[in-house]
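Per-residue structure
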Amino acid sequence: MSASTGTVTEIARAKINLTLHVGRAIPDGRFKGYHPVDSLVVFADFGDRLVFTPAEEPYFEITGPFGNRLETNSDNLVSRALRASGATSQSVQLEKNIPISAGLGGGSANAAAVLRCFDLDGRIEGAPLGADVPVCRLSQTTLMQGIGEKITVLPNLGQLSAVLVNPLVPVSTAAIFTAFDSEAREELPRQNSGEGSLLQRALDGQNDLQHIAGELVPDIKSVINAIEQQQGCRLARMSGSGASCFGLFKSDDAAVAAADIIKNTHPEWWVRPCRLGDAP
C-alpha cells in the first residue's frame, strides 16, 4: 500500500558500528568540521516502530520505553524528514524502543524510515538530515566512508549473535570529538578489512572513540568489562560515540544467557540480546 493512500508501518532498525575509524576534522569546504570515517555498520533485528496514516491535520504521538524522553515538536527528525519529502499531512505514531542519544542511530533511523516511505525515487539526499541517515535508509550491512555519505553494501555476510548494553548515562558527542581533536590525527581514517567473515572484519578493526569516551564516561568501561566477562564473548566494543556497547557471542543461547546475567547484576542498565547483520 502506498504511504500516501493508507496506513503504513515501518521498522527503524537500530544501527551498530562494529568498527569506527576516524580521521582528523576536515579543515575547509562543504564538510568543514566533520570527520572522515571508515566504519563497518550493521543493523539489529529490532528497532523503533513508526505508523503513518494520512490525516487532515498533522499529529505526532510517541510511545514505547523511551518515548517520554522525546518531544513531539516540529523540529524533530521525523517531522523534518516528512517536510523534506513533501509528504501529505500525516498522523505519526512512533514506538520508541531504541535508547536516546545512545550511539545506535535512533533518530537517524527514524528519519530514514520516513524517506523509505515517502521518497520512493530517492531524490532526497539524506545526509543534511544527519550523517547516519543514508546508511540507515539502506538498513543493510555496509561499509560507511566519507562523512557517512559514501556507502558500500556488503551482502551475504550473515548475522552475529549479540548483546547490546547501555548504562543510560548522558554522553556528549561534542566533548568526545573535542578531546579527539586535541591530539594529532591522521588525515584519513584507517581502512577496514575487505576480507573475511563479518566477525573477522569486526575483530580486525576498532573504535577510535572508545578510549576517549571511556575516560569521559567511566560507565562505558564498566559496561565493556561486564560484557567481556560473559561466557562465549568473542568481542566487546562501544558503538558510535557511545554510550551503547555490544558484545558478540558464539551463539544466540550464549547471548541470551549473558544478557540475563548482566541484567541481574546491573538492573539500572538497558540490556537487549539480538542478532546483528543481514535483515531477518
